[in-house]
């Protein structure tokens, strides 16, 4: 092979190697589960409270991981249930949140999360009854929590009786056994606020924090707070 | 150097010049650093540990600057003085281009002395500052006075603390995916997500984890201790002035590791007492449902099977197994 041919071969191989490297890095950096964003900034007049309706289900019943636990949220525009955990919210606004909890419960790994923290009145409404602390070692225990650590918000989602016939495919009808939990909190300035469940509910995963606990659109996500 | 110069006289003259230049620049650089930059170096001066660590960093820089400047001065002087000039005489080889034993020995001796001095200094600082804010494991060998008594009281008779007591304040740090919580055994063992500390007090952090490996890093306090499940890692510091600090997890611990941070405060002793007393009362209902205060907790009932969370085929957790005191 001539010198020119050798040089061309070396350059081509070098470019292929660089291309493969770039592709590998790009694939590594790409988020694992692409998800949508549910926009709550246009569902009410400016300055008015935002209403979020969500569900927690013991098994999502569809998709790549039908047996995983998951959050669902009602899209305020289409009024359809979606499996998004990134919610766009207006800054400095009261958020009225209602969660329909369809999963069973157990004692908390850390009873600290049995307290209702960071909400208006440091309390929640559990099926219409005001609760400020829930002892997870009594009754049906706690199935999940809704917590926004950077806002100091933490709310235990009391479980339903595990011996009942539970909803196995989301979205769940309110005719199925569930607890209705409602509470309010206020967003702060614009920014990205991660939220998560503090019950290690990833069954079959180390310490329960793998699987749905470590995959976006299941048991954690972001409050994308924007200025109005 | 040209062939017309006496090599020995020339070397001495150049060495003297380089030394003078190095000395002036080093003194100026060290003084500028010490007075202008040093007071602002990390991690600040919120605790005695932070002060000591800031001093350590500043001392290292003060020593390192002259070494670095010596290399730069030698390089710069050499380039300017002995660089080959176009049309000039050929560089001289042979005897004068070989190594200088005196310079080599001096370099080895000086750098060895510096390294040995720093090793001694670091060891003394580590011991005298009770571990310098690092986790010392469950049985710290450099515990400050009163720490053992406070730790024992926290587990047995019930610890207490007040501004006039002069006691060590025991604070337990509990890491979990993905949040730190804190227990105060001197105030009934209440647990909270807030880390508030009094000024002018020796703090004994007892760090543990409920799940995977985390690391408690209170940056401005200059405290850093690994949080391991079923292990108690003790770190000490003495708070000095009031201020805020950041707490971060410094061990990659899962999806929300980046969100595992919060902010703490060092406040006056009276303000701390007010906060702690109020928090104890506000948390009383939940505190009675917490596990008895212990150095570690065993959250995984079926841990013997590999620490997997309950999967429906295992007997449901009991209170003690879920979050209970280790015997």
Summarize the structure.
Chain A is mainly β. Chain A contains 1 helix and 13 strands, in the order αβββββββββββββ.
Question: Layout of SSEs?
Answer:
The complex is a heterodimer of chains A (228) and B (327).
Chain A: H1 3-29, E1 37-39, E2 50-57, E3 70-74, E4 81-82, E5 86-90, E6 94-101, E7 124-126, E8 129-131, E9 142-148, E10 153-158, E11 179-186, E12 191-196, E13 220-226
Parallel strand pairs in A: 1-5, 2-6, 5-13
Antiparallel strand pairs in A: 2-3, 3-4, 6-11, 7-8, 7-11, 9-10, 12-13
Chain B: H1 7-37, H2 48-82, H3 101-128, H4 147-155, E1 169-176, E2 179-184, E3 190-192, E4 195-198, E5 202-209, E6 214-218, E7 223-227, E8 233-238, E9 243-249, E10 261-267, H5 269-282, H6 284-287, E11 297-298, H7 319-323, E12 324-325
Parallel strand pairs in B: 1-5, 4-10
Antiparallel strand pairs in B: 1-2, 2-3, 5-8, 6-7, 6-9, 9-10, 11-12
Helix pairs in contact in B: 1-2, 2-3
CATH third-tier fold name of the largest domain in chain A: Immunoglobulin-like
CATH C-level class of the largest domain in chain A is Mainly Beta
Second-tier CATH architecture of the largest domain in chain B = Sandwich
Specify the CATH homologous superfamily of the largest domain in chain B.
Answer: Cupredoxins -  blue copper proteins
Low-confidence segments of chain A, given as residue ranges, are: none
Instruction: Profile the largest sheet of chain B.
Output: 5 strands, mixed
The CATH superfamily of the largest domain in chain A turns out to be: Cupredoxins -  blue copper proteins
Poorly predicted segments of chain B: 301-327
Tally of individual domains of chain A: 2
Q: Can you name the CATH architecture of the largest domain in chain A?
A: Sandwich
What's the total number of strands of chain B? 12
Q: How are strands sequenced across the largest beta sheet of chain A?
A: 4-3-2-6-11-7-8
Terminal-residue CA separation of chain B: 79 Å
Helix fraction of chain B by DSSP (H/I, runs of at least 4) = 25-40%
By CATH, the topology of the largest domain in chain B is Immunoglobulin-like
